[in-house]
Design a protein that fits this description.
single chain; about 290 residues; alpha/beta; TIM Barrel; two-stranded antiparallel ribbon; 10 helices; about 15% strand; disordered N terminus
Length: about 290
Amino acid sequence: MLSPVVLRAAAGGGKLHVSANTYAWGTYAGREGKGFQQYSDEALAMMAASGLGGFEPSVGSAGELEGLGPKLQRAGLEMRSIYVGSQLHEKRLADESIGRIVAIAKAAAGLGTKIVVTNPVPVPGELRGKEADARIEAQGEGLDRLGAALRETGVVLALHNHDAELRQGGREFHHLLSATKAENVKFCLDAHWVYRGCGDSETALFDVVERYGERVVSLHLRQSRGGKWSETFTGEGDIDYVRLAKRLRELGRDPLLVLEQCAEGGTPHTMDGTAAHRASEAEVQRVFAR
């Protein structure tokens, strides 16, 4: 049974709700030599024009969200999730992060947000032994405390990772999901960062799904070809998303679908961000249609 706090992806008329992380939009704007102001009417209008139903901004403080409600209404967008940074490997830093993120979550909840995604600052890879373990364990304790605090506001915490957390045998990644309570800490599966962090291994990605799939509440979507991020989510690529969608359904998961198709060095450049997201959104609809 799905957790009642997880928003269903399906919207009216059978169309899936698909949002996009604003980091991705910034990468497309950057290669055009343009800036990207994630809360501006222009940016919100571009996202709506691409067919998206919502967006996931990176939020640093509660004050950033002031006055955002009317803008979202004008653009016809929802903000079902937000992305926040955190530092949790020391108690003092964890206390500061928890206070700041709870304040952000309370402000965001008033705008319809149900999921707070965080990617704690990783433990430095050069640390070894007891020094590394102490920080990793503190990180787990802080993450669990943060999740418990957010539950009290009616918002779900979802752990996100990049590739750094999967180094040294995935010591940090696995601890943060193994040492925290499932009711406090859910999982934002960024399929491509797991794939890349495990040496471009689709096998490792699906092993992660088997181990932690029941905690997935949000799914970040990015495709690549030959290890390089592709311009759009369309077509065959390194990750079999049809298989991933099928397996998540089998596990009873209906995660929030968040496009994070980005441009990096080596990504083809044939269209702007709006066109790329329009094509990607259509492909997400096809791949994840029930």
